[in-house]
Write a structure and sequence with these properties.
Structural class: alpha+beta
Largest sheet: 2 strands, antiparallel
Order of helices and strands: HEEHH
Low-confidence stretches: none
Helix content: 40-55%
Strand content: 15-25%
Length: 103
């Protein structure tokens, strides 16, 4: 079952595919994409427009935080190549703990 579309046929903006599409649209500076998925009723396509507001409110801050706290420190001072554990900022550890509680 594909949960990318609601029962009314509208795009589910909480779906992980929507986040991925918005990220790709912003990174590639495209204005839209044509999303296609095979369903039991055949091929379903949807034109997804770049959503600057969604990017600003739902994605940008989290991505910048991840880059600054997780990726950049490893690029500047790699620990993996020295067989050291990778840094886990408090925000990451908290997210892991929250996910464990939900399971």
């Amino acid at each position: 079952k594909i949960l990318f579309w609601s029962s009314k046929g509208e795009v589910n903006q909480n779906h992980k595919w929507y986040y991925q599409i918005q990220g790709q649209l912003h990174i590639t500076r495209r204005q839209y994409c044509v999303f296609a998925a095979w369903t039991p009723k055949g091929l379903k396509t949807e034109t997804i427009l770049k959503d600057d507001q969604f990017w600003k409110t739902e994605m940008e801050e989290k991505l910048v935080s991840f880059y600054m706290k997780c990726l950049l420190p490893e690029l500047v001072d790699p620990r993996k190549v020295r067989n050291m554990p990778i840094r886990d900022p408090d925000t990451i550890l908290q997210a892991i703990e929250n996910r464990k509680r939900k399971l």
